[in-house]
Predict the structure.
Amino acid sequence: MKFETLAIKSLENNLTNTNAVSVPIYLSTTFIRNEDGSYNNDFLYTRSNNPNRQILENSLALLEGGKICYTFSSGMAAISAIFQSFSTGDHILLPDDVYYNVYMLTTEVFERWGLEFTIVDMSDKNEVLSAIKDNTKLIWVETPSNPQLKITDIEQISEIAKKNDILLAVDNTWSTPVLLKPLDLGADIVMHSTTKYFGGHSDVLGGCVILKENNETAQKISHIQSLSGGVPSPFDCWLISRGIQTLHLRVTAQTKTAKKLAKFLEKHPQIKKVNYPGLKSHTQFDIAKKQMKNGYGAMLSVLIKGNAETAKKITNKLKVFTTATSLGGVESLVEHRKSVEGINSNTPENLLRISVGLENVDDLIEDWKQALSN
Ligand SMILES: *Cc1c(COP(=O)(O)O)cnc(C)c1O
């Protein structure tokens, strides 16, 4: 089955005998034990499993081409579970513009517990190679990266990881499996903030981990999920499942609009640079073209001519774009990223991050035209 069909069929209601077409929300935290002590479908207690969560996890695993999926109450909870599956003294490689909260989580929490991290430029093969140590257990990749839209060649990093017996995890939040399938390119683990494109409507928080094999790492993550309890509520699972039904449609439309907007902004005299992997001017356009399908995503960032003040003023002049953090919803958002990340961030002060929504492209371009005029 093709992606769009799989997205619909994988979320069909197969757990009830009421014949309801839409899946009911199973709020029950506990499930009746049979006389012989067994449970139907292994449903026991909602921290361990729940029908809405199971349907969502099956769907996510299928869409990413993985064997198994675990969902969490947020993207950060999913990332925490992956890091928690490692042991004191293990070493992890992170990209230099990794999602800022991941950087904070490593320095403020996991380093205290004895996990070691090295930050590298993931687009530089030699830098990655020379950062590998005997205790390196995981390479973490984000492509395109946040907020500079750097591209990492997943096949290349996967080759390095395999040769050195290291796991490769890809945060695929920005691309979604509509555009990029990391497991097919050699990654072992895919992680998502399902808050973004899967949910798609800025009204639900969630995260997931999808693995290529149901191996020891998968079992560890499953155990951490159930023990530490950072699980999504049945209603959140239901909302994310509903989002998945239109994921392909939304992402392809938003991607098309983003490319047009990127092309417009690239020619504008008030814009110094546009970071968008679908532009020929992007230094890693060839890698993006090789590994992405159906387009280059609905996220971009621009460097404004001027300073932080000039950039922030533009966000205030935009009327169709809403000034807010996050991404992947139906509404277009803009944000001065350095203000969000704080003083230690190495994001340029004149950078604005843009999440393109489902509005008409002409309205979005007109909005930038008026906001950039004096
Ligand atoms: C938002 C985001 C996260 C964190 O997910 P939450 O659902 O907000 O916890 C992680 N990685 C990327 C790339 C994100 O955009």
User: Anything to note?
Assistant: The two ends are 52 Å apart (CA to CA). The chain has 14 helices and twelve strands. The longest strand covers residues 136-142. Residues 248-371 form a domain with the Aspartate Aminotransferase, domain 1 fold (CATH 3.90.1150.10).
